[in-house]
Design a protein that fits this description.
The protein is α/β, with parallel strands linked by helices. The chain is about 40% helix and about 15% strand. The chain is built from 9 helices and 7 strands. The protein has a 3-stranded parallel β-sheet, with helices on one face. α1 crosses α2 and α8 crosses α9.
Length: about 190
């Protein structure tokens, strides 16, 4: 983080805003960057719109993608991935394909309707990327945005980048949101 923050300093103007997801690990990263950049913590803006996926219940996503037991309303519910994930996608591919919104009929017949409704209310990958893209277009150009690796990777995929071009921990990308079009202008080196 320290090396990345020093490198970022070359691209940002004096006393930038730091906009961060409100979750612990991103706030921690934002505070480290602020210290290195000489930015007071009062210039860190916590934006709940930068959270990973709204309403994400990772255990539920994993159970639907890979099968297993999910505790729901105090009861153990057995979820068979042959019903919920007939194409046998990994949990990442399951989320990326917006499968949370399209529950197969076989699963709907076997699982409690309230559980199906909970899954269908999860924000899809497409919706999360659209939300992040809109946020990035609105943020002041003299800002550092600290968000989650998974969401950032989904947005990069949407922008046409492959999984070989994913960001590693501590790595960053500079994005120009000129005229509402997101354009990566700089990738930091892999650590």
């Amino acid at each position: 983080i320290q090396a990345s923050a020093k490198e970022i300093n070359n691209y940002l103007g004096f006393n930038p805003h730091i906009v961060s997801s409100p979750f612990g690990r991103t706030v921690h990263t934002a505070k480290i960057a602020a210290e290195i950049l000489g930015v007071p913590n009062s210039r860190i803006i916590l934006d709940p719109e930068l959270e990973d996926a709204h309403g994400l219940d990772f255990d539920l996503l994993l159970a639907f993608a890979e099968g297993g037991i999910y505790k729901f309303n105090g009861e153990d519910i057995a979820i068979d991935s042959r019903d919920t994930n007939p194409h046998n996608l990994s949990y990442v591919a399951y989320f990326n394909s917006d499968s949370t919104r399209y529950i197969p009929v076989a699963a709907k017949k076997k699982l409690p309707i309230e559980l199906i409704e909970k899954m269908e209310k999860l924000e899809t990958c497409t919706e999360a990327c659209f939300r992040l893209e809109n946020i990035l277009k609105k943020i002041d150009s003299n800002s550092l945005v600290v968000t989650h690796q998974g969401l950032t990777q989904r947005l990069l995929e949407k922008m046409g980048y492959s999984h070989e071009e994913y960001l590693d921990r501590g790595q960053f990308i500079i994005v120009d949101a000129n005229k509402g079009v997101l354009n990566p202008i700089y990738w930091s080196e892999k650590n």
